[in-house]
Structures are given as C-alpha cells and as structure tokens.
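As a warm-up, study this chain.
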Amino acid sequence: MYKVVEFLKTKEVELVPSVGIQNGVSCWPHLKVISLHSAIKQQVTPSQDWVSWEIRELFTTGVMDISYSCSLRNVYTLIREMLTKQEMILDQQQSILRILNAKHPQDTDYVIERGLLPVKDLQALNTLEQKLQSVDFKEKLINHLGLIGGCDTKDTVWRTMHRTISNDLAKSINWRGVNGKISLAALQIKDVVIDAVRKNVFSSTATNSEIENVMKRWLHLASDRDGGRKRRQKD
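Now compare it with the structure written out below.
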C-alpha cells in the first residue's frame, strides 16, 4: 500500500510506501530519481541512513503511478495556493472590520436625524451651522458622512458633497462668496466635509488643498447638473 502525504516542513506532496511511515513520520532516502522511484515502487524497507520527516497523511492508495503522483502534487499545490490567498483575503477583511469598528464603535456615534441632509435651502443651512457649534454633533456628522466612502479623493468628495448639499442650494454657493453667493469657505460644514473625506482609507492622506479643489469644482458645476447644461443649450 502507498500513502499520499504532505511533508510538513517543505509543504511538498509525495507518494510514499506505507512501510516507511510510523507515528506521523516518514523515512525518505537520499537516492537519485530513478533509484528513488524504484525504492518507492518496490516498497523498500527504510534503512538507518534514511532521513525522517514529519508528515500529514492525506489518503491511502494501492496504485503506484508516477504520473498519478505528479498530478496529485499539482492539485495539492493549487489547493495550498488557493488556501493561502483565502487567508490573505480573510486577513484583509478583518483589518477592514477593525478599522470600521475603531471609527464607528456605536450606532449613536454616526446616526443623525432623518431629513437633515442634504440641506435644501438657506434656512436649513443656517440651522445646520448652528447645530455644528456642538462638538458632539459635529463629530457625529463627520462620522456619518465618513461612511459614504468612494474609490479615490475626487469620488469621495463628490459623493460627500452630494449627500450634504442639494444641487439647487449649491447653485447659490461658491468658495469665496463672490457675486452675492454664500461662501463655503466661511462655513463650518466645509471642515466637516474635509474631515469626513479623510475617514475613507482611499482618501485619508489627501491634503486640504486637494479636497478643497474638488469641492470648488463640484460647486462650479452645480448649474450643469440635473439637466442644466441641456436647458441652456436649448435656450
């Protein structure tokens, strides 16, 4: 009889005679390939100069087929690679969960009242600015918007701004407040958006300047969204 085993130290899979296995240990000879195959096929009794290896028995077979053995090695090599990659994915998922749990340990840390966002008019914006004078509420809003995420800095800012300010109100806002518009740079919500964007691992290292430039661009294009550009072209 033969056994297909895995050598624990080298992670190799081999077909070995059952006679050379005892108590989780297999004896392996120092022989050339042809002599080695012959020794395995003839189930030669191990001698004292054979090396002992700790093994894990996979299954037993009565067939001595070298090509079959090679195929098994390839299969188990692929399985090991798949398991290794699976472990890496699981580790990454655990890391993501640890990050999320660290940032959002309780629902009360990021749940805000329904209907508060996006702000739709000047009155709602003023109400939000008053609420942001509370440090606790400001942190909660940062955590709330930080859940939005995105694939990069631009995408994260775009999605966060869309969730925070309605497009109709955005048409009345620009960065510095010129031409009679509201200045976003002077509002507390600006700092909230910046901090929320950095909650995302894909934009955590973005500078204020990078985030602000995307915010400016988002405001600048407010008139083009929701069909605004097409309406102007018709006119």
